[in-house]
UniProtKB/TrEMBL annotation:
Protein name: Chorismate-binding protein
Domain spans labelled Chorismate-utilising enzyme C-terminal: 106-309, 330-373
High-level lineage: Bacteria, Pseudomonadati, Bacteroidota, Flavobacteriia, Flavobacteriales
InterPro entries linked to this entry: ADC_synthase (IPR005801), Chorismate_C (IPR015890)
Length: 383
């Protein structure tokens, strides 16, 4: 275990040297981890049997990068004394806003959403997730400062700072797990529907949101069922789940892979889920690629630990010796969907935000939803 000061010093040196690294903290965990590549070589992910930390784009056929476990240093420190600044839910943001630009962005986004709604009504697809990106001038673009703020503010999210010479600097605080697996057990979630958190998690959801989220659950469950590689699927009841100043509807889904080597099949079945793309997948994807103004790059892609050696220990009595050995060699994967994220470049942040569109969506409401979602990142960019 390192001291926080030592941890940040090493990361800062890594950044200066232009070598790839990632620093991150799991949802609800005080531990902050980092993986620092020892050299400047570029490792594109070849397949999901590798071990390390991966960063994959939205487009399933785009280049994904890995910081391999081998040849990299692991660091961790306990951030338990972090000041909790979670209570400032509705702090006023003093970022300079260019209102003319904002009006233009709003027009463009509402037009895009309306086009999506029209296509759904024409029967081309059932749901599509449409996103926009927004440039924000940052007063103090030090990625470490922003990362520390993210850690303190969003302890229930997967918080990360990723730097790679090929992708640049990305930061985020995502509420969405793509896949958690250990040996042949896996967990995923269906997350959709958004409303502002007003101090109460036990809230009513409108029919539109409930339906939209149920679509996502059904689609994930059906695709996993069709995949002959999994069994014993368990699906929770939907419930409200908080993500910073927002609430979403969430359903937990778990199951077993017939063979732990089927990870690749499960991930390619899940990604991109209808929570970030739509359904049917191919039709929604084509619409996104053709109509969104930006390249999503790594937004709504996924990131996390891939096949890392598990550190779970069983009790060390004699009878458990065998089990202990078994758990020591088991591998753990923990991947998150890259949402509530931004790319930092030359003093500017590009924030990516989107929302699910169904036949009952309203373009103006969808714009507001992206404005609300953008606060997750904007709140940490203020001084
Ligand atoms: C697409 C995003 O979020 C996703 C879309 C949601 C929605 O449509 O309500 C909710 C949670 C996420 O699954 C985003 O944050 O950019």
């Amino acid at each position: 275990m390192t001291q926080a000061s030592e941890f940040y010093k090493k990361i800062s040196e890594q950044l200066k040297a232009g070598k790839a690294f990632v620093a991150y903290s799991r949802p609800g965990d005080h531990l902050v981890n980092a993986l620092l590549q020892n050299d400047k070589s570029v490792h594109q992910l070849i397949d999901l049997n590798e071990s390390g930390f991966i960063f994959a784009p939205f487009k399933a056929d785009g280049a994904a990068y890995i910081i391999p476990s081998e040849g990299s240093d692991f660091l961790e420190f306990d951030n338990k004394d972090a000041e909790n600044i979670d209570s400032e839910l509705f702090e006023s943001l003093s970022l300079t806003t260019d209102f003319e630009m904002m009006e233009e962005d709003q027009k463009v986004h509402e037009k895009l959403v309306q086009k999506g709604i029209d296509r759904i009504k024409d029967g081309e697809f059932q749901k599509v997730v449409l996103a926009r990106s927004e440039k924000v001038q940052v007063h103090d673009p030090d990625p470490l400062r922003i990362f520390k703020k993210l850690l303190n503010k969003y302890s229930e999210a997967f918080v990360y700072l990723w730097f790679h010479p090929e992708t640049g600097t990305w930061l985020g605080a995502t509420p969405e797990t793509l896949l958690r697996s250990e040996r042949n057990k896996f967990h995923t979630m269906a997350l959709a529907g958004t409303q502002l958190y007003r101090g109460e998690e036990n809230v009513e959801w409108g029919q539109k949101e409930a339906e939209e989220q149920a679509f996502v659950t059904d689609y994930i469950v059906d695709s996993l069922k069709n995949l002959k590689a999994v069994e014993e699927l368990e699906v929770s009841e939907p419930y409200s789940s908080r993500a910073g100043s927002l609430l979403h509807i969430r359903t937990d889904i778990s199951g077993k892979m017939n063979d732990p080597g089927d990870l690749e099949k499960v991930i390619s079945t899940l990604h991109p889920t209808p929570a970030v793309c739509g359904m049917p997948k191919q039709e929604a994807l084509q619409f996104i690629l053709k109509n969104e103004e930006h390249d999503r790059e790594f937004y709504s892609g996924y990131l996390g630990e891939l096949n890392l050696k598990s550190t779970t220990h069983r009790s060390g009595n004699r009878r458990n010796q065998e089990n202990r050995q078994f758990s020591a060699i088991s591998k753990k994967t923990e991947l998150f969907v890259n949402l509530r994220c931004m790319k930092l470049k030359e003093g500017q942040a590009r924030i990516f935000i989107g929302g699910g569109i169904t036949k009952d969506s309203n373009a103006a409401d969808e714009w507001m939803e992206t404005v609300n979602k953008s606060q997750t990142m904007k709140a940490v960019l203020v001084k």
